[in-house]
Amino acid sequence: MSWGAVIVRVVVGGLFVGHGLQKLNGSFNGPGLEGTEKMMESLEMEPAKTNALAVSLAETGAGAAIVAGAATPLAAGGLIASMVTAIRKVHAKNGVWNSNGGFEYNAVLIAVLTALAAEGPGKASFDALFGKARWGAKGALTALALGIGGSIAAVEMGRRTAEKKSAESGGDLGGTAEG
Q1: Do 56 and 49 meet the contact criterion of CB atoms below 8 Å apart?
Q2: What is the structure's pLDDT at 128?
Q3: Which of the residues in the chain have pLDDT under 50?
Q4: Partner of 117 for a Cys bridge, out of 12, 43, 83, 143, CB 3.0 to 4.6 A?
Q5: Spatial contact of 116 and 72, defined as CB atoms under 8 Å apart
Q6: Its topology with respect to the membrane (predicted)?
């Protein structure tokens, strides 16, 4: 699967780089960091600025690592975390199918990244230079654990920070209190 892995790495990793750059600096008609921060606020992913920068850099950097076939399970884990969080915060409520705003596409990306972490980036990769052209089940489980764990941590941090922010403002998020 060596050349097949290269094709998957370049397409999937390259698209993640583009997606990350959309968030980071507005490339490819993206929202840029300011728009991404607003999205994070709307999703209660506080602190929004930190989460916006984190997801932008994670998608860009991990996408580039996937293209290069470098630290594949770690890179896949970072991207899986982004996709799991997108499912949890945006798509799950819409069901499976992408046509309804569901998580179909995210699930496919998670499956591809998990398979890539298991089968490895192939012989034409940085990992192969260090004897890791194939990672096996350990690579897949590492990527999934990092992805799911990263999502849980990000969403929980967002929830707790949003609650703290609300409590500090007296629970008033812009409304008026009438007695």
Answers
A1: no
A2: 94
A3: 174-179
A4: 143
A5: yes
A6: Multi-pass membrane protein
What's the gap between Cα 178 and its chain centre?
A: 42
pLDDT digits (tens, 9 = 90+) for 68-112: 999 999 999 999 999 999 999 999 999 999 999 999 999 999 999
Q: Do the beta carbons of residue 82 and residue 58 sit within 8 Å?
A: yes
| 72-86 helix and 48-68 helix, angle to the nearest 10 degrees | 140
Return d(Cα 129, Cα 123) in angstroms, integer: 8
What Rg do the C-alpha atoms of the chain give, in angstroms? 18
Cα–Cα distances (Å) from 92 to 88, 95, 100, 102, 105, in that order, read 6, 5, 11, 6, 12
- Token pair for residue 143? 């990527």
| Other residues' Cβ atoms within 10 Å of the Cβ of residue 107 | 16
CA distance 19 to 27: 9
Q: What is the DSSP string of 63-96?
A: HHHHHHT-SHHHHHHHHHHHHHHHIIIIIGGG-S
